[in-house]
Design goal:
Layout: E1 2-14, E2 27-39, H1 51-62, E3 68-69, H2 83-97, E4 103-113, E5 116-120
Parallel strand pairs: 1-3
Antiparallel strand pairs: 1-2, 2-4, 4-5
Catalytic activity: 7,8-dihydroneopterin 3'-triphosphate + H2O = 6-carboxy-5,6,7,8-tetrahydropterin + triphosphate + acetaldehyde + 2 H(+)
Cofactor: Zn(2+)
Pfam family, one: PTPS
C-alpha cells in the first residue's frame, strides 16, 4: 500500500451561526489542507497517482472555497462552515473527481491555525 498526499491552503471568511462566542462574528482564516489517497498498486511508471493529477483535482475543489465568504456558498447553507464541515466538503469533492481505478481517498486534514486542526476520514 502507498499513501500519497499533497498539501495546499486557502483563505476564506466565515462565521459560525449560533456559536456562543467571538466565532459568531465574521472573521477569516488561512486554512491549511492535506489530502491523502491510498494506492494498492503502482502504474507502469511506478506511481500510485501522479502528483500533478492529485494537485489538479484538489485545486478544483479548493478553488470553490478560496477567497470566499463560506457562509454564502450553497453547501454551507444548512451546515456551519466549521473546519469539520470544510473537511467533509473537500473530502466529498475530491472523492467525486478521483479516478476510480487504483486510488481511494483516505483522509483530509484541515488546520485552522498552525497548532489546531482535524482529520476527516469520510462516512
Amino acid at each position: 500500500m502507498y499513501d500519497i498526499f499533497i498539501k495546499t491552503h486557502f483563505a476564506g471568511a466565515h462565521h459560525l451561526r449560533d456559536y456562543p462566542g467571538d466565532c459568531e462574528k465574521p472573521h477569516g482564516h488561512n486554512w491549511k489542507v492535506e489530502v491523502m489517497v491510498r494506492a494498492a498498486e503502482l502504474d507502469n511508471c511506478g506511481m500510485g497517482i501522479d502528483f500533478k493529477i492529485l494537485k489538479r483535482i484538489v485545486k478544483e475543489v479548493i478553488d470553490k472555497l478560496d477567497h470566499h465568504d463560506l457562509n454564502t456558498l450553497p453547501w454551507f447553507q444548512e451546515k456551519n462552515p466549521s473546519s469539520e464541515h470544510i473537511a467533509e466538503f473537500i473530502f466529498e469533492g475530491v472523492s467525486d473527481l478521483l479516478p476510480d481505478d487504483n486510488c481511494s481517498l483516505q483522509r483530509v486534514m484541515v488546520m485552522e491555525t498552525d497548532s489546531q486542526g482535524l482529520y476527516y476520514y469520510g462516512k
